Every structure is written in structure tokens, then in C-alpha cells.
């Protein structure tokens, strides 16, 4: 199935190498030191009349309008002889060129200073180009092959990209169509590289930036991730894969592409085992996307419409299920131990159970509204939204354990993902929410519509406890060891015995003053009328000098009235805030104390790690 696509790409590539493509991009990097890249789009065999040139408004993998056309300057157009052609800008991201036919050359400069969103960046050490923010296209030629010429870069710079070189020249790249060009970023610069193979397929790691990384160790660990995720889907949907990595202060995140990924991380990712394990979670996440999104694609974002928002209710699968597998792959391969995995799951559960937004927004709504809510944060976001990443991962966890429980381990989420992948190839139509429900119900042998109605289209609380217990894991509330406000409630259970005074505020320090970043709905400050951007001046006549309010709230009892002085638009205001006590602690996971043989077996099947021996009782091992 996928190999037919690869065969077609290779066939077209060989034909194109022998014949000149009708579309070429000449990329001049001689002013990369000034963060300027000049692009010449050469269109051959153009019919007389008007030809439209368009730059996408967003990039695949980030569901937000970015409008990269704002960094285009000095646009112009000529014919083959260099004579100017008449042109006009018709939209924020589109131009029309009028021609008598033949060859059209459209030239423009690009200001490349957007490294953190992984779109385009240039300096004196490297250039990174993500096609959707760089290359104009003509809609009628979107499906045609093209050549990309990289010119003007230092001769000792290395090229790293999933695009294939034409004629063996690494600076002359072939793309079978514009969609592949958009989904295959190009890196050229001072890079360190290493390669490894999985099932005879080459994989390359190319790193720009400085850090205490160990390339052979990275290659070994990346290979384990590749092999684990290959086992889920059964095949590698590419003939070569490239891991691009930027290492630098303030960098983080990643973007998946067809046969490559661009990842970013701080140098500190390589200074401790825990931070390195966090980095491997990013690697695992982006690589899982090679199948889930890059091949198995939801309806609504397939095919891409590059000029407007692409809506889908399935980002909880595209991103949430991927987020579930990123850590699951690490524990299966032994790159993290079950105790670390349990810490990560417990942290996610704690965050969700503290979020007011979980009661208002469903996973489907979060997915659909990614363009206007998830990627357009406001001070109210925590009150009315949830993340299709983190909650999507938790619902995927529940779905995985539900399938295992209903079928006694015969069917897992692995089975569902492979079945969806096989039934919905990239060359077909995207899959729908109904497809997901149907496949899960079919494989489980019973109707699972109720699960999806409650937890995907609905906002019912997630009941993890019975599912985790089935797999030999206990979910429990762990009170803070030394909570800064202790209050005993004789009529409450032990796990709710401690509380802390919570004003329901998120604070930030700005210009030496403490400001309110957000106010949690239903919290003490919300009801008192404190709002975002208020300056927090004093509590009970004591000056607020830090975002840490613990010293000011020591000795305060739940129900007490606090006098809070705030500054708002130049005015001093006093608000009465009734102190509210909330449980002090977090949700954690641990293995059950007296497991049955069945629980041990289920645990092993789920995590890929055997049930440990007596060391499980060691307090240093929370697993």
C-alpha cells in the first residue's frame, strides 16, 4: 500500500532527473548572515494570461494561522529575457503575474528569523527552511514535480533533508509535488551527523547547535524507539528518514513531517538522565507521527487547504494518542522505568483533575477549536478549555486498558492504530470519528459508543481507578509531605486530610511588581472580582513581593476573609476574599501490594516490562 506511493515517487524522480522540471526554485543563501534568503521561482511552459502565486497561511503540524507572507519583501517578476512582467498582489498571501507565455521568473526576498516556530531561519552558521513558509506555488501545478537549487552557501556546509538529491548533487533537490516539498524541511549548515539502520532502512540524525550530546548513544536510543513503533504499525512508510535537531537556549518542541522531523531542545537536555529522558519523549512523539498524521490522516485536514483553517474533531487522536504512545514507547523499550512512567501519568491526571475547563470543553470541541482556542491562549483559557494533547493521551490510556479488559488482552490500542492505518492510506480519504468508533467496537466485539459519548464528545469525569487496578496499578492521592498550610478534617478520609489555602490565582512578576496572570473560575479570587492584569499589592496589609504567597497565607484558616489590595489602571482597590482550602497533594500511581498472577501478566503485556521482585516495596521506587 505505502510502498506503491514510494515506488511512484522514485519513478517520477528518475524521470525528472533526466528531464528538466517545469518548476524550479533557486534559493540564494549568500546573505544568510543577514537573515535574508532570496527565492527565484522559475515556471517553464506557462500559458499566456494570468498565473497565480500563493504562499500558505499555516504550516502542517501547527493548527494556527501564521501568515508567513508578512516576511516577504521585494517581490518582482520577469520573463525569460529579464524583461519585467506586470503583477499585482491580490490577497495577503497571493500575487497574480500577467504573461504572454513561456517562462516566468518570480523573485522575492524572505526575512528568515523564526526559529522557535520551526518555519524559517538563517544566520552565519546554518539555514532552516520549512516549505510552507518559504516556497510560493501555483495551484494548478501543486501536483507537479519541482527542483530546488541551493546556492550561495559555504562549501563546507552540510545538507540534511528528506528530499532526494537529483543527479547525486546534495544541493540540487527533487520533490515529486508541492505537498511533499511543504512536508520536507531543508537544513543546511554546520551540522554533526550520524546514521543507523532499521530493517535495512537508513536513518540519519543531523544536529545544529552545541550541547553535551553523545551521538552514538542518541543513535542507539533512537533506534529502539523506531523499532518499538514499527512493531505497532508493521511497516516503515519511507525509504529514508532524517531526524533534524536544533540545540540552543530557549528552544523546545518539534514538528512532524513525511520522512523527517524537526526537533528543538535546550543544551540542558543532555546534562542529566531525567532531562535526557524528557528529550527522548519528544523524539518518540514526533516519530510516532510518521504514521499517525503523516499517513493516517483525519478527514478535514486531508488534503491540506493551505489558505485557511482545516477543521477536524480528531486532533485528540492525531496528537493525543501520539502523546500517549510517546511515553509508552519509552517504558516499553526500557528507556524509562515504570516508576518514571507512573510519575508522568500521575502528573497528567493531577493537572486534569485541577482544571475547571475539563467540565466545559470536550475533546472533540478542543480538537475543532484548536485554531481559535488552543493556539490562541487568553487568561480565561484554563477555565474553559482542555488540551487535546494531554487529555487525549489520558483518554487513549483509558481506551487501551478498556480494550484489553474487554478482550482479555486480545485487542489493544496497538491493534486499533494498525487497523486504522491499514484501512485509511494516505492516498485515500481521511478517517472520521465514526471510523474510530466502528473499528474499536468491531475489534472489541461490543458497542463502545458509550465510551466515546462520555469521554470524547462528552465531559464526564475520567474513571481511571478500575482500569488501572485491572492492570495491577493503584491510583491514589498522596498528600504533601510538608504542606505549607495544614488543616485536619476529622470526618474526611486520610487522602483528603490536608489542605492548603488557595486564592485561585496564577501570578507573574513584571517590572518588579506582582500581576495576576489568570483567575480560576469558582476560586476565591474569582468570586471576589479580582481579574487578569491586576497588580497584587498587599494581603491583610502585608506587601506582596513575590509570586510565592505561602509566607503571607501561613496561619490563615479556610473561611477567613482576607483584605486584598490591588492596583487596576492606576487606581487602588480593596477586595474581600474568602479563603478556600483545597487538598494539598497530587495523584500518583504505584503497583498494587498483593497482585494476582493475572494482574502481573496484564501489567507486563501493557508496559512491556515484567513485574518486579521484592524491590517493588522499596520506598525509593514509586512504581
SSE layout and pairings?
Layout: H1 2-18, E1 23-28, E2 36-46, E3 49-54, E4 72-79, E5 87-91, E6 94-99, E7 102-111, E8 113-114, E9 120-122, E10 126-129, E11 146-151, E12 158-161, E13 164-166, E14 169-175, H2 178-182, E15 186-189, E16 192-198, E17 201-209, H3 215-233, E18 241-247, E19 253-256, E20 260-265, H4 273-288, H5 315-333, H6 338-353, H7 363-368, H8 381-384, H9 390-407, H10 413-423, H11 433-444, H12 449-455, H13 465-470, E21 473-479, E22 499-502, E23 505-510, E24 513-519, H14 524-528, E25 535-539, E26 542-543, H15 550-553, E27 561-568, E28 571-578, E29 580-583, E30 585-591, H16 597-607
Helix pairs in contact: 3-4, 3-5, 4-5, 5-6, 5-9, 10-11
Notes on the structure:
A seven-stranded mixed β-sheet has the order 4-7-2-1-11-14-13. The chain has a five-stranded antiparallel β-sheet with strand order 8-9-10-15-12, with no helix packed on it. The protein is built from 16 helices and 30 strands. The N terminus and C terminus are likely disordered. The protein has 623 residues and is an alpha+beta fold. The longest helix is centred in the middle third of the chain and has 19 residues.
| β-strand amount | 25-35%
| Gross geometry | globular
Q: Considering DSSP H and I runs of 4 or more, what fraction of the residues is helical?
A: 25-40%
Average pLDDT across residues?
93
Which regions are unreliable across 5 or more consecutive residues at pLDDT < 50?
Answer: 1-9, 11-18, 482-497, 614-622
> Mind summarizing the main beta sheet?
7 strands, mixed
Amino acid at each position: 500500500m505505502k510502498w506503491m506511493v514510494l515506488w511512484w515517487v522514485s519513478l517520477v524522480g528518475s524521470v525528472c532527473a533526466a528531464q528538466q522540471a517545469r518548476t524550479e526554485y533557486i534559493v540564494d543563501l549568500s546573505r544568510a548572515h543577514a537573515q535574508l534568503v532570496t527565492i527565484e521561482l522559475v515556471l517553464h511552459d506557462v500559458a499566456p494570461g494570468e498565473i497565480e502565486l500563493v504562499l500558505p497561511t499555516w504550516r502542517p503540524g501547527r493548527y494556527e494561522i501564521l501568515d508567513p507572507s508578512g516576511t516577504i519583501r521585494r517581490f518582482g517578476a520577469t520573463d525569460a529575457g529579464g524583461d519585467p512582467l506586470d503583477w499585482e498582489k491580490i490577497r495577503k498571501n497571493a500575487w497574480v503575474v500577467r504573461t504572454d507565455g513561456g517562462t516566468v521568473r518570480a523573485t522575492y526576498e524572505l526575512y528568515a528569523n523564526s526559529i522557535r516556530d520551526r518555519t524559517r531561519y538563517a544566520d552565519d552558521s546554518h539555514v532552516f527552511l520549512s516549505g510552507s513558509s518559504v516556497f510560493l506555488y501555483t495551484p494548478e501545478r501543486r501536483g507537479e514535480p519541482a527542483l530546488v537549487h541551493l546556492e550561495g552557501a559555504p562549501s563546507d556546509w552540510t545538507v540534511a533533508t528528506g528530499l532526494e538529491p537529483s543527479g547525486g548533487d546534495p544541493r540540487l533537490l527533487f520533490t515529486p509535488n508541492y505537498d511533499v516539498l511543504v512536508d520536507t524541511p531543508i537544513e543546511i549548515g554546520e551540522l554533526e551527523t550520524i546514521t543507523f539502520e532499521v530493517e535495512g532502512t537508513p536513518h540519519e540524525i543531523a544536529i545544529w547547535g552545541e550541547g553535551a550530546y553523545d551521538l552514538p548513544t542518541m543513535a542507539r536510543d533512537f533506534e529502539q524507539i523506531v523499532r518499538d513503533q514499527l512493531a505497532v504499525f508493521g511497516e516503515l512508510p519511507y525509504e529514508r528518514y532524517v531526524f533534524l535537531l536544533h540545540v540552543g537556549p530557549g528552544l523546545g518542541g518539534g514538528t512532524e513531517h513525511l520522512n523527517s522531523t524537526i526537533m528543538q531542545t535546550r543544551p540542558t537536555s543532555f546534562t542529566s538522565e531525567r532531562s535526557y529522558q524528557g528529550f527522548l519523549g519528544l523524539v518518540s512523539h514526533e516519530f510516532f507521527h510518521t504514521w499517525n498524521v503523516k499517513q493516517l490522516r483525519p478527514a478535514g485536514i486531508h488534503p491540506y487547504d493551505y489558505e485557511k483553517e482545516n477543521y477536524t474533531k480528531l486532533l485528540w487522536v492525531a496528537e493525543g494518542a501520539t502523546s500517549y504512545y510517546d511515553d509508552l514507547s519509552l517504558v516499553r523499550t526500557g528507556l524509562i522505568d515504570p516508576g518514571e512512567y507512573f510519575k508522568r501519568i500521575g502528573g497528567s491526571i493531577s493537572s486534569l483533575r485541577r482544571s475547571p475547563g475539563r467540565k466545559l470543553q470536550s475533546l472533540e470541541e478542543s480538537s475543532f477549536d484548536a485554531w481559535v482556542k488552543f493556539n490562541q491562549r487568553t487568561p480565561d483559557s484554563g477555565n474553559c478549555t482542555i488540551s487535546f494533547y494531554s487529555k487525549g493521551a489520558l483518554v487513549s490510556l483509558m481506551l487501551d486498558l478498556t480494550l484489553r479488559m474487554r478482550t482479555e488482552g486480545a485487542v489493544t490500542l496497538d491493534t486499533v492504530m494498525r487497523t486504522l492505518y491499514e484501512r485509511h492510506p494516505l492516498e485515500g480519504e481521511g478517517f472520521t470519528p465514526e471510523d474510530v468508533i466502528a473499528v474499536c467496537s468491531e475489534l472489541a466485539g461490543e458497542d463502545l459508543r458509550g465510551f466515546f459519548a462520555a469521554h470524547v464528545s462528552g465531559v464526564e469525569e475520567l474513571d481511571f481507578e478500575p482500569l488501572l487496578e485491572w492492570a495491577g496499578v493503584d491510583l491514589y492521592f498522596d498528600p504533601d509531605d510538608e504542606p505549607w498550610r495544614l488543616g485536619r478534617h476529622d470526618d474526611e478520609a486520610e487522602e483528603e486530610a490536608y489542605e492548603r489555602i488557595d486564592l485561585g490565582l496564577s501570578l507573574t512578576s513584571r517590572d518588579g511588581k506582582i500581576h495576576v496572570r489568570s483567575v480560576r473560575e469558582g476560586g476565591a479570587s474569582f468570586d471576589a472580582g479580582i481579574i487578569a492584569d491586576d497588580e497584587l499589592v498587599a494581603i491583610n496589609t502585608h506587601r506582596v513581593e513575590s509570586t510565592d504567597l505561602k509566607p503571607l497565607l501561613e496561619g490563615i484558616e479556610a473561611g477567613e476573609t482576607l483584605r486584598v489590595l490591588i492596583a487596576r489602571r492606576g487606581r487602588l482597590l480593596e477586595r474581600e476574599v474568602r479563603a478556600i482550602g483545597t487538598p494539598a497533594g497530587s495523584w500518583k500511581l504505584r503497583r498494587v501490594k498483593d497482585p494476582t498472577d493475572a494482574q502481573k501478566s496484564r501489567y507486563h503485556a501493557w508496559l512491556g516490562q515484567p513485574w518486579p521482585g521484592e524491590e517493588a516495596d522499596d520506598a525509593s521506587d514509586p512504581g
